[in-house]
Structure to design on (291 residues):
C-alpha cells in the first residue's frame, strides 16, 4: 500500500472504532450531565450486554436478532437496579456517588466472573470476506457496527431535540435548580437518562463483542478511552462526546502507523492532555459543568 492508502485505511478503521467510543462516551456524559458524577460502573454495563446476548444465543438458542435486544434488556435491568438501589440515594452527593460507582463496578465484574467464569466466548455472528475498494480493505462487520452505532447516536439526538423528556434532560443538565422550580420531575428525568445511557452502553458492548470476544474485563478495558472521550468533548456535552469519540478513534489508529499497536490506547490520553492544556473545558464544554 502507498503511504496515502495506509493513512486512508487507518482513518477508515478509526471511524469505525470512534463510533463505538462515541456511543460509550455519550452514555457517560449523559449521566454526568444530569447526575453530576462520573459513573465508573458504565464499563460493566457493556460487559453485561455482551454476556446477555451470548447467553440468549448459546443457552436459549435465540437467533441473533432476538439475542441482541435480550442483551440490551439485561444491561438496562442491571443498570436500573444499580440506580434504584444505590445511586438514587446519593442525589446531590456526587463524590459519594463516584466512590459508590467504583464499588458497583468491582462488584459487577466479580459477579460476572463468578457466574460465567474467566474464559472467553465468541458471539455467533457471520464471517464475511473483506471488501476491497480503491486499494482499501473494508471489513463488513466493522462497517455494519459503524452504521448501527451512528443510527443509535442519531436516535439519541432525536430524543434530546424532539421529545419532552429530551428537553427536560437538557434543562436539568443546564440548571438543575431552575428545572426543579419549573415543575420538572428530577426522578423521572434521572430514570430516563439512565435508561438511554444503559441502552447505548449495552449496544456498544454487544458491538465490541461481535468484533472481538465476550469476557469479564471487556468493559473495563474500554472504560478509560471512553472517559477520555467524554472529558475531551466536555463532560455534560453529548455532542462533544460524539465528536471527541470520533476524533480519538481516528487519532489512535493513525498513530499506529508510527507506534506499536500496544500503545494505541495511550494516544487517547496524549490527545486529551494536549487539548485540555489549551481548552480546560474540553472541545465543546462550558467553563463550569458542575457545581
Amino acid at each position: 500500500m502507498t503511504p496515502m492508502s495506509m493513512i486512508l485505511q487507518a482513518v477508515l478503521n478509526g471511524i469505525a472504532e470512534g463510533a463505538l467510543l462515541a456511543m460509550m462516551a455519550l452514555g457517560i456524559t449523559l449521566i454526568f450531565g444530569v447526575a453530576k458524577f462520573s459513573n465508573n460502573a458504565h464499563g460493566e454495563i457493556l460487559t453485561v450486554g455482551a454476556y446477555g446476548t451470548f447467553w440468549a444465543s448459546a443457552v436459549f438458542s435465540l437467533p441473533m436478532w432476538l439475542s441482541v435486544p435480550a442483551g440490551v434488556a439485561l444491561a438496562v435491568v442491571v443498570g436500573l437496579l444499580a440506580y434504584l438501589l444505590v445511586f438514587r440515594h446519593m442525589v446531590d452527593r456526587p463524590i459519594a456517588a463516584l466512590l459508590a460507582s467504583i464499588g458497583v463496578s468491582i462488584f459487577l465484574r466479580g459477579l460476572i466472573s463468578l457466574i460465567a467464569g474467566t474464559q472467553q466466548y465468541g458471539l455467533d455472528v457471520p464471517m464475511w470476506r473483506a471488501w476491497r475498494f480503491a486499494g482499501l480493505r473494508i471489513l463488513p462487520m466493522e462497517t455494519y457496527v459503524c452504521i448501527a452505532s451512528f443510527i443509535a447516536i442519531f436516535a439519541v439526538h432525536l430524543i434530546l431535540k424532539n421529545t419532552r423528556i429530551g428537553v427536560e434532560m437538557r434543562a436539568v443538565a443546564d440548571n438543575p435548580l431552575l428545572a426543579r422550580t419549573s415543575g420538572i420531575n428530577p426522578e423521572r428525568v434521572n430514570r430516563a437518562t439512565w435508561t438511554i445511557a444503559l441502552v447505548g452502553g449495552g449496544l456498544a458492548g454487544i458491538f465490541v463483542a461481535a468484533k472481538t470476544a465476550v469476557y469479564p474485563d471487556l468493559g473495563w478495558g474500554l472504560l478509560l478511552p471512553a472517559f477520555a472521550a467524554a472529558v475531551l468533548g466536555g463532560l455534560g456535552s453529548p455532542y462533544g462526546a460524539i465528536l471527541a469519540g470520533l476524533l480519538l478513534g481516528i487519532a489512535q489508529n493513525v498513530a499506529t502507523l508510527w507506534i506499536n499497536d500496544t500503545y494505541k490506547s495511550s494516544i487517547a490520553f496524549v490527545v486529551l492532555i494536549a487539548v485540555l492544556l489549551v481548552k480546560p473545558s474540553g472541545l465543546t464544554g462550558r467553563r463550569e459543568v458542575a457545581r
